[in-house]
């Protein structure tokens, strides 16, 4: 425990110099404790900072430019980065600075929205499995196992081929089987927690199933849930980029980082900057989410404390 | 054991059935029919076409026929390239995809395990940190970004390899690297953490106390137990490499199944999309099935309970 250094002298009323020190240490909640540990993790904090910068830039970036993401300018196609077009222009003369940040915005929206939907479905489905157990659990668990064994990207590709492509369709398609992992995490946590005394106490005081679940069980399972959410964002971003690459992503003129990389492939030996900026940004985003997820796992999982 | 395998097999069949049915009904849900876009075709010809593809029969009948054909391995006829059987086209283009896939899998496993082993043995030393930085980067960089990057550097700028095409042995190198880096990163991380656990286990202390030499401890106890979790990754890895190959083949201009799949999506060649989807589905579910069996074989502890711990 990181706070143990302060606790060692708990029984001494004075330290070496003779000054009185507090007898009672202020209690530290799990979240404060986790935050302290996360703060000590330089890599995770750096990732968190990077993510905040990327999110802010994707909001502010397009605003501070004189250009928009959709207007063609056929006199200025494939221009290298300059003081006018900070990231250059693409094959239709659209400003790459604005498009890159708009693309980042779309990619982040897809990642965060997909993760949020996974979270909601996963909590409900997994919560029911874990709380009720028994036959309900067996049937629901078998169902999710069968669904899970159908290859993820194949399902997503099929759905996108059939339905009209667009931001909403992509997010829905990504969550069709994406929630399963989350539901398993929730199920496992709830199963472990539900036999604990505080749940028994709540039940004996007449708390309803919903109250037990949302007031008592889930808050105690938040650690692993947060870690899973953090790690599912980059995987959704990756899937979206992959689909854009197949031409099944968001449709022009809207861009995502994946579709920009795809666009840049034609003639990218001549105009490499069209590839560099979106590619670097997507790598940075995924890296930061992954590292932050690792850091959160170390900070929130008491089992890993050594 | 037999029960376990049988139940896993049943699961696989059930999942396949769901995938096949979902594919069929999703494709039927598309408004219109595939010949709507063909202009200047007489109605009689359209009718003949509908008949040829069996599209004028009731849905239920089409569905049963489709399932029957699937069992026989008949995936129908391409809608874009008439007279070309889907299964034939898959068979024709399978070879390059298979070769690259197998290479990528073998390299991923070998390099991944070695990297993870080294990292675990030099825990918290420089070499461990370097290996883990590589692993994190490998996970964060999407395979298609990596593919374009190495294509740019090693083929376009340095000229060591052909930019496109798949004719010489050297043409293997870049696509295989692009496919293998992500699995390598995963396996390295997996191996490392499981090895660290094993190294601290009591039976290693016992082995040391017995006076076994370091080499025997390593090979007989540490490595054997340490690479166990890697087995569970075989299924997901195959999925990773198969889907990755769809994009990689496009980038490196390799005429494999991935290429066929992308083309069929662009052309909206529905029978071909269905065929390749089902083919991929069978492939990936088989990989998962093999993983499940391997897992019981290497880890005798789960034989008794009949299923993996929940």
Automatic annotation (TrEMBL), chain A:
SUPFAM superfamilies: MetI-like. Residues 104-293 form the ABC transmembrane type-1 domain. GO terms for biological process: transmembrane transport. Its main location: membrane. Pfam families: BPD_transp_1, OppC_N. The keyword Ligase does not apply. The chain crosses the membrane at residues 43-67, 106-134, 146-163, 169-186, 217-238, 275-296. GO terms for cellular component: plasma membrane. The keyword Nucleotide-binding does not apply. Belongs to the binding-protein-dependent transport system permease family. PANTHER family: OLIGOPEPTIDE TRANSPORT SYSTEM PERMEASE PROTEIN APPC, OLIGOPEPTIDE TRANSPORT SYSTEM PERMEASE PROTEIN OPPC. This is Oligopeptide transport system permease protein OppC. It comes from Paenibacillus nuruki.
TrEMBL record, chain B:
Keywords: Cell membrane, Membrane, Transmembrane, Transmembrane helix, Transport. One of its GO terms (cellular component) is plasma membrane. The keyword Transmembrane applies. This is Oligopeptide transport system permease protein OppB. It is found in: Cell membrane. GO terms for biological process: transmembrane transport. It is a multi-pass membrane protein. The chain crosses the membrane at residues 9-30, 100-122, 129-152, 172-190, 227-252, 272-298. It comes from Paenibacillus nuruki. The keyword Transferase does not apply. It holds the Pfam family BPD_transp_1. Belongs to the binding-protein-dependent transport system permease family. Coiled coil: none annotated. Residues 94-295 form the ABC transmembrane type-1 domain. InterPro entries: BPD_transp_1_N (IPR045621), MetI-like (IPR000515), MetI-like_sf (IPR035906).
């Amino acid at each position: 425990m990181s706070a143990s250094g302060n606790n060692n002298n708990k029984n001494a009323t004075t330290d070496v110099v003779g000054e009185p020190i507090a007898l009672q240490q202020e209690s530290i909640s799990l979240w404060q404790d986790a935050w302290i540990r996360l703060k000590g993790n330089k890599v995770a904090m750096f990732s968190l900072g990077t993510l905040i910068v990327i999110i802010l830039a994707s909001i502010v970036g397009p605003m501070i430019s004189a250009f928009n993401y959709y207007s063609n300018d056929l006199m200025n196609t494939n221009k290298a980065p300059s003081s006018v077009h900070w990231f250059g222009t693409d094959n239709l003369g659209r400003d790459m600075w604005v498009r890159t940040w708009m693309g980042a915005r779309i990619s982040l929206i897809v990642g965060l929205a997909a993760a949020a939907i996974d979270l909601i479905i996963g909590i409900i489905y997994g919560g029911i499995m874990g709380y009720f157990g028994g036959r309900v659990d067996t049937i629901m668990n078998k169902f999710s196992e069968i669904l899970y064994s159908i290859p993820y990207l194949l399902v997503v590709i099929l759905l996108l081929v059939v339905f009209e492509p667009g931001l909403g369709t992509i997010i829905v398609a990504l969550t069709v089987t994406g929630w399963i992992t989350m539901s398993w995490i929730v199920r496992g946590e709830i199963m472990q927690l539900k036999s604990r005394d505080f749940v028994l106490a709540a039940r004996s005081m007449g708390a309803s199933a919903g109250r037990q679940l949302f007031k008592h069980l889930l808050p105690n399972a938040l650690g692993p849930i947060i870690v899973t959410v953090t790690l599912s964002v980059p995987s959704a971003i990756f899937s979206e980029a992959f689909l854009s690459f197949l031409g099944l992503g968001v449709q022009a003129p809207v861009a995502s980082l994946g579709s920009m990389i795809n666009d840049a492939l034609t003639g990218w030996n001549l105009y490499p900057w069209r590839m560099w900026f979106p590619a670097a940004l997507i790598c940075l985003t995924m890296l930061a989410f992954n590292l932050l997820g690792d850091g959160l796992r170390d900070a929130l999982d008491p089992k890993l404390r050594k | 054991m037999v029960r376990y395998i049988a139940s896993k097999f049943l699961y696989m069949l059930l999942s396949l059935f769901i995938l096949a049915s979902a594919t069929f009904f999703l494709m039927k849900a598309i408004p219109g029919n595939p010949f709507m876009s063909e202009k200047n075709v007489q109605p009689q010809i359209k009718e003949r076409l509908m008949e040829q593809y069996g599209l004028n029969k009731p849905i239920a009948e089409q569905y049963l026929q489709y399932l029957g054909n699937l069992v026989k391995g008949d995936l129908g006829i391409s809608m874009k390239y008439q007279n070309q059987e889907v299964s034939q086209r898959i068979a024709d283009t399978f070879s390059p995809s298979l070769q690259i896939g197998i290479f990528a899998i073998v390299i991923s496993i070998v390099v991944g395990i070695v990297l993870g082993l080294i990292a675990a043995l030099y825990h918290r030393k420089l070499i461990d940190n370097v290996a883990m930085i590589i692993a994190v980067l490998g996970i964060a960089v999407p395979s298609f970004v990596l593919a374009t990057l190495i294509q740019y550097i090693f083929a376009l700028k340095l000229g060591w390899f052909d930019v496109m095409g798949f004719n010489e042995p050297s043409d293997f190198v870049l696509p295989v690297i692009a496919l293998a880096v992500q699995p390598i990163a995963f396996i390295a991380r997996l191996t490392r953490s499981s090895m660290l656990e094993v190294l601290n286990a009591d039976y290693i202390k016992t082995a040391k106390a017995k006076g076994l030499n370091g080499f025997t401890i390593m090979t007989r106890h540490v490595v054997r137990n340490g690479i166990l979790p890697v087995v569970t990754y075989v299924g997901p890895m195959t999925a990773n490499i198969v889907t990755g190959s769809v994009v990689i083949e496009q980038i490196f201009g390799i005429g494999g199944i991935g290429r066929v799949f992308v083309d069929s999506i662009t052309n909206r060649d529905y029978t071909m999309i269905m065929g390749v989807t089902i083919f991929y589905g069978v492939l990936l579910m088989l990989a998962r099935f093999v993983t499940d069996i391997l897992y019981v074989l290497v880890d005798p502890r789960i034989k008794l309970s009949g299923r993996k711990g929940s």
